[in-house]
Amino acid sequence: MAKKKSKKSGSTPAIVHLEKAGVPFDTVEYEHSSDDMDKGYGIEGASKLGMDPHQVFKTLLADSGSELVVGVVPVSGHLDLKKLAAAADVKKLEMANPQKAQRATGYVVGGISPFGQKTTHRTFLDASALDFPTILVSGGKRGFDVVIAPQDLIDVLGGQAAAIGKD
After folding, report:
1. d(CA 37, CA 78)
2. Which of 6, 105, 155, 163 gives 117 a disulfide partner, CB atoms 3.0 to 4.6 angstroms apart?
3. Which homologous superfamily does the CATH classification assign to the domain defined by 13-166?
């Protein structure tokens, strides 16, 4: 299905957050289908939007035991927990329990956005994002993505770029 522009105003907490921040962004939508989930939400989105999966990013939460940390990595690869732990200067991280991630962010798995989360978490964007003028990240629901410059994502979230992904 071809990409469609959506009305941005107030669609999700992510959109509200970005509008308040005043950074340029756009949105795209695709029809999410649970029948297309054999490779994951992000790959489904990249495929349906005709995008390079290295330019489409997924938002994952990792748990140190005392805090949740956000890692944003390309859908073409995986989050390297050891590299994220080093970037976050914590001893060890494991993937957050999906229910805990949903409670902490206010979003459902497959639609977790780095923007507009219920609780603020330290956020790390894989450095490969800086190779692109814009990247896609979840806009706060399945089938709804934000198109944004990587540096704007970092600036809005007070995040950092770090080599946290792996193929």
Report:
1. 16
2. 105
3. YbaK/aminoacyl-tRNA synthetase-associated domain (3.90.960.10)
Q: Is 50 exposed, middle or buried (0-12, 13-18, 19+ CB in 10 A)?
A: exposed
* Full DSSP string of 45-94: HHHHHT--TTTBEEEEEEE-SS-EEEEEEETTSEE-HHHHHHHHT-S--E
Query: CB-based contacts of 98: which residues, under 8 Å, 6+ apart?
Result: 109
Tens of pLDDT along 31-40? 866 654 445 6
Cβ neighbours of 40 (radius 10 Å): 14
Domain ranges across the chain: 13-166
